[in-house]
Write a structure and sequence with these properties.
The complex is a heterotrimer.
Chain A lengths: L17 H6 L4 H8 L2 H10 L12 H6 L12 E6 L8 H8 L1 H15 L3 E6 L4 H16 L15 E6 L9 H8 L23 E5 H13 L1 H6 L9 E7 L6 E6 L4 H8 L9 E5 L19 H6 L8 E6 L4 H15 L5 H18 L6 H12 L9 H15 L1 H10 L8
Parallel strand pairs in A: 1-2, 1-4, 2-3, 5-8
Antiparallel strand pairs in A: 5-6, 7-8
Helix pairs in contact in A: 2-6, 2-9, 3-6, 5-6, 5-7, 6-9, 13-14, 13-16, 14-15, 15-16
Chain B lengths: L1 E5 L2 E5 L5 H7 L23 E5 L8 E4 L10 E3 L3 H15 L16 H9 L22 E3 L9 H9 L6 E3 L6 E3 L14 H4 L5 E3 H5 L8 E6 L8 E7 L2 E7 L12 H5 L14 E2 L8 H10 L3 E5 L6 H11 L4 E2 L4 H16 L7 H4 L4 E5 L3 H4 L1 H10 L2 H9 L7 H8 L6 E5 L11 E4 L2 H17 L9 H11 L3 E6 L5 H16 L5 E5 L5 H7 L5 H10 L3 E6 L3 H4 L2 H10 L2 E6 L4 H5 L2 E4 L8 E4 L4 E5 L12 H10 L7 H11 L22 E2 L30 E2 L46 E2 L23 E6 L13 H4 L7 E3 L1 H6 L7 E6 L2 E9 L7 E5 L12 E7 L2
Parallel strand pairs in B: 1-5, 14-15, 14-21, 16-17, 16-19, 17-18, 19-20, 21-22, 22-23, 26-27, 29-33, 30-32
Antiparallel strand pairs in B: 1-2, 3-4, 3-5, 6-9, 7-8, 10-11, 11-12, 13-23, 24-25, 25-28, 29-34, 31-32, 31-34
Helix pairs in contact in B: 9-24, 10-18, 10-19, 14-15, 16-17, 16-18
Chain C lengths: L8 H10 L10 H12 L4 H11 L3 H8 L13 E6 L2 H5 L2 H12 L5 E2 L5 E6 L11 E3 L2 E3 L7 H6 L3
The chains are: A alpha/beta, B alpha/beta, C alpha+beta.
The complex binds flavin mononucleotide, iron/sulfur cluster (SF4) and FE2/S2 (inorganic) cluster (FES).
Amino acid sequence: MERPLTEHIKQDGTPLSLKEYEAVGGYQGLRNALKVSPADVMNVVKDSKLRGRGGAGFPTGVKWSFVPMGDNAPSPKYIVANGDEMEPGTFKDRLLVEGNPHQLIEGMIISAYAIGASMSYIFLRWAYHEAAKRIQYALNEAYEAGYLGKNILGSPFSLEMDLHTSVGRYICGEETALLNALEGKRANPRNKPPFPQVSGLFGKPTIVNNVETFSNIPHILAKGAQWYISLSKSEGGGGTKLYGASGKVKRPAIWELPLGTTLGEVIEEHAGGMQDGYKLRGLLPGGASTDFLTPDQMNIKLDFEEVAKAGSRMGTGTIIVMDDKTCPVGMCLNLEQFFAQESCGWCTPCREGLPWTAKILLALEEGNGKPEDIDHLTFQTHYNAPGNTFCALAPGAMEPLQSALKHFREDFDEHIHTHRCKYQHG
Amino acid sequence: MAKVFIDNIEYEVPNGKNMLEVALSLGLDLPYFCWHPAMHSVGACRQCAVTNYRDENDTRGRITMACMLDATDGTRISINDQKSKDFRAGNIESLMINHPHDCPVCDEGGECHLQDMTVMSGHNYRRYRFKKRTHINQDLGPFLNHEMNRCIQCYRCVRFYNDYAGGKDFGVFASAGRVYFGRSEPGTLENEFSGNLVEVCPTGVFTDKTLKKHFTRKWDLTSAPSVCHQCSVGCNILASERYGTMRRVMTRFNGDVNGYFLCDRGRFGYEYVNDEKRLTRAAQKDASSGSDPVSSVKAHIASRPKMIGIGSPRASLESNFMLKRLVGAENFYQGIPSNEADVINEVLRVLREGKVRTPSLKEMEDFDTVFVLGEDVTNTAPMMALGLRQTAKTLPKQKAYALRIQHWNDAAIREVVQDEKGPFFLATGYATKLEEVSTSVYHGDTNSLLKLSEAITNEIRSGSGDNQSGGFSHQVAQALLASEKPLIVSGTGMMSKSIVQAAANIAGALKDAGREVGIVYAVPEANSMGLAMLGAAGSLDDAISRVNNEKDLTAVVLETNLFYRTDNQTASDFLSHCHKTILIDSMENECTQEADFILPAGTFAESDGTMVNNEGRAQRYYQVFKPNNDMRSSWAWLDMMINQTEEARPYDDIIREMLEANPALEKIKTLAPAADFRIGTQKIPRQTHRFSGRTSMNAHVSVHEGKPPVDNDSPLTYTMEGYHGKPPSADIPFYWSPGWNSIQSINKYQIEVGGDLHGGNPGLRLIEPNENGITRFEVNSAGNNSGRYEVLPSWHIFGSGEMSAMSPAIEKRIPDVYIAVSDKALEKAGLQGADKISVRHQSATITLPVKVDNSLPDNVVLLPYGFKDTVGWRFPFKGELERGV
Amino acid sequence: MVTAQVISNEARQEIEKLFHHLPHKQAACIDALKIVQKYNRWVSDEALQELAPILEMSVHEIDSVATFYNIIFRRPVGRHVILLCNSVSCWIMGYEEIKKALKDKLKIDFGMTTKDDRFTFLPIPCLGTCDHAPAMIIDEDLYRDLKPDQLDEILAKYE
Ligand SMILES: Cc1cc2nc3c(=O)[nH]c(=O)nc-3n(C[C@H](O)[C@H](O)[C@H](O)COP(=O)(O)O)c2cc1C
Ligand code: SF4
Ligand code: FES
């Protein structure tokens, strides 16, 4: 089984140096790309069926194709790597940026070439201090080796790349909010349209992709679209995917597996199943803003279509496991408090609805729930549905709650009727 | 045109609109908060949700914000379906969870958009059972009250204050449910347009502090359509009173002039009307005759004395005309010094005889390149500056449109525009605030500005030019030539006729080069233009020399404080040289002690009349209330004098007479409906039908309801009786529509929201350019050259206006008086480190504290215009600097 | 009049360098705040005053940005800042226990600073190390797989 993204990442936890990266084929994809036209690069990426790894799974090549090209296109254009990774339960990009920053950098250079960008940013979340140091080091190496800067590898193509570390807010991961943060502003999301591909950073055409998405690009350019598609077990997209699991499983970790690996395989084989004394009650398949799946759904394939069919979203592919000794209401409370706190405060449903939701859940947990609270929670899940809010934060926040109300309704009712949370100790 | 469907009804609507605008323009009720007709859409509040259907077969549809939905052909929405209704009800419920239950004591109550929208959206039962969030309030200075707990986070305030008006001392802080709108720390809001927050805020976070001082419920106000008297722009206002005192001023929408906004001088400068120094009773110095003062004046006039009249740029056309009629054209003088009169007359000449058109304030926003010559627009014509701030974005915005971003997509446009602006050039005597939006600036004394203008004109005419003045003139000339719609802005601020001519020449050259050029002048006062149009035998100076020579003159001084217009000595000499003086004015001043007779004049609040603004637009204003004393329109006094009557003739008779005598004013005939105008049989009430207090208003005096005063001068009544539909656009005393109690009900008075009023915007332009007109004006060189420093007036929105400066809230914002010089100039004069310096001009000296301003050219010195210590000085003048003591 | 300068020359130079790749100075606002904080621990009102002319922004504009973000401190913090992850995986894996232990040891709750100014104690959302929950960051050091009995040893490293 091939693991192009992670196979060279060292077990000792140190990052690949430029030399080490080059020794395993690093920057070959870039060399290949520079030999062909930007349009060719874009086509290879389109053909590879690479889909964005940031959560929504949008086909990457298609996204790029919206960027205005040609001499009359606005300039400069920008490439931005989204390494904000603040979604609770998500820890995949950390592995890539800490283990192999050059892979990300190379992916971004190729992407910049494809869309004709001349400036690029790595937007990294604040808490990744170690990653920041490593990226900065790798950037210096890349500049020195002529992979960045003027006339890259002797070609007419030039690109600058900067690292920006965020000052902490989940909304910065939303791509348009991220652009505002990069502009030094409050990270409120922007309306789409216009999409960033047309009017993005500083009002110029901009591509924002996830760190994992970019990390795939060098390999696609090095080995071709067909090879990439062959890595996947999914109809809907090519390549491998980083899957992870946290919670009370035996071996919580990250694994690179073919896209479309089944849920059961990840939990049972890779994570080693539940810790002794714990039973699986439910799980969020792709981070905090996905719907609960239940133990009877272990044979679904983890790809964008199948998970959606099963009533959830693949999201980031990092699974949060809820065991039978964890209170589903308490877990929802924890999640909603997070989302309420991280709302940017721009639109009404999210800014007002999420705190209200969290307050009700807290009341339930503290034994002050009322029967009508269930109706109100249900109302909130409709009220904050996609399209109703300005961005996808609040709809994401509602996913675990709406599915918990479906799958674990008895727990909510019990909290209300017994005026206590039976999971709480003491 | 696009065909759209709303609740399955087909409508033809203009292209380029969003569905919220479309729905509101069709008269449908759709609630909203964050959208504003002048600031457009950002999609934050989510209150304008509708259900959007793909096509007629789509039965489910999806919730969409109407304000963010393009009204393209085939767009199909529903407002009345259950789905969007439920959403809107839920949304308003969420907005209200933290809102205090303070409507009964809230200043906004009864005129609150949030109240209206809550009712409209159908939320009436509170389910939220947790603690409300609370905030600390800030002291924001003398104009605005801050009550943050009422905030519903629609972001309109920051979008107006920062994005639209360019303010920098206000903002949104924190995030999530804790967002806070205010300042980093408490303190006075500095922006000249801060008062608009009162109207922009849909609830009671920002309320009018001057109203709070003498609060009355909004529905108990008596209001009249009026015109702001505080500068030459002539913004339309709604002026409101109760119990004979003025309570507040709000924006009266005029799509050609001020649109939705007012400046702070206009909004808060009304309080002088309530001053205890108001003249309320007719009076005479010598009561020995035994007859009452009015009879004495009449008797004196009947004795046919030799009279001269001093007209006034702050009095109405009608009053000036009646004065002229009383004293005769050859004895009628403009009540301003000759230098000022010359400049204003020159502006009028340029507009009348020139070939270049002067645009309306609204039209100014459509020009693409701006050159400002010699005018501190923010301080002399504030609303013009607000308009020019928008003009500065005309070309940058094109970039957004080229990306197919819709005109209403405010945030997206801003993203593309970033901080790009212009081309926008300023050449002024001192640094002005519009430099914030300019691409390049130049500071110089009058002569260097003239030289610069000449270079620009020559370069435009010849197509190429030398690179003088550090390339500035070249830059300006090329930018103007490259522009399709260049705008030249100037004015009387430097009190220089040559500057007026120089600006006209640049515009003229552009006109000859085939550009669609506009020229705009700011003039000093509300009716400076009207007074100039009436024509006079001379200026105040000419009147002064007449009384010096002819000792038997009776001077009728109309709304002119001689001690404001000229220096003390000259003013008192004038008064003592007159045989008799009859003063018609509104406020006690140095003249009132000396005058033989005093007739108390109404201010804009107690009189009717017409003003002509800087554009040459005649605008009618109406008396707000009938005072229970002697105050009345000045023209009414004059009419009583002329005809020796007990009561003046009705206003319409005066107008008729004025138009007969002044064919140039002919258009005024159709400016507003005549007094006998009726809708059906009904007049137009100044009070809303919600007015509550009439029967009990004077209960402490008498329980009998007095007979309400009758208005013979206009189609308006002073009561709530009358027609409650929509009056003609010139006569709208307040905005109200069922379900829309706040100022937002303006929507219902417009042909399309944000557009013109039904029946056309009020006001009529009296001056149109002459197609065969002049494009070259001879520039008279700048006079007096003795003395090393040119002393220029510096203008202050708060302080340089004669009447507004007497309003307590404005008074608090007047800066300390100063002499401004650069360090270099101080050095040149050997005055480094001096705290106070003197400027000497001929035999006169003025000594004031020094304010160092290094943006000043080293031969320019500034004195604030119209401050107590500086009145009477005639600018510009050449002077010497000395150490002050 | 000379007032104490709260943004050091060193910090100023570092801020100036930011302008290099940016179309206008305001775009450096967040990074500049970070630099100020790096040198001063937190961003005081005085620091905002000094930052304003450097960035060509008003104090209000900078504060509007500063108060939006979690990790810009507009109130004084101690010599060391403990950020304990309170997000879902850590919560499942025993965050409450760690929080209680830290509270007891430091004798402060979230949002507070110890009397000796040694520690400020704050919650933080997911640290992206959920496979090693519970986790916390002190200053820039990440601690994972936390057990209450390790805390003494960890805290002892910070003076
Ligand atoms: C609230 C919110 C947070 C997000 N956080 C992240 C994030 O941390 N990292 C990320 O790559 N995408 C995040 N996204 C998704 C981005 O908006 C965007 O879709 C993504 O970066 C696109 O990259 P991709 O096409 O490579 O997936 C977030 C979206 C939302 C609505
Ligand atoms: S849903 Fe609304 S308030 Fe929430 S983060 Fe998005 S834009 Fe901000
Ligand atoms: S008015 Fe449409 S979202 Fe606020």
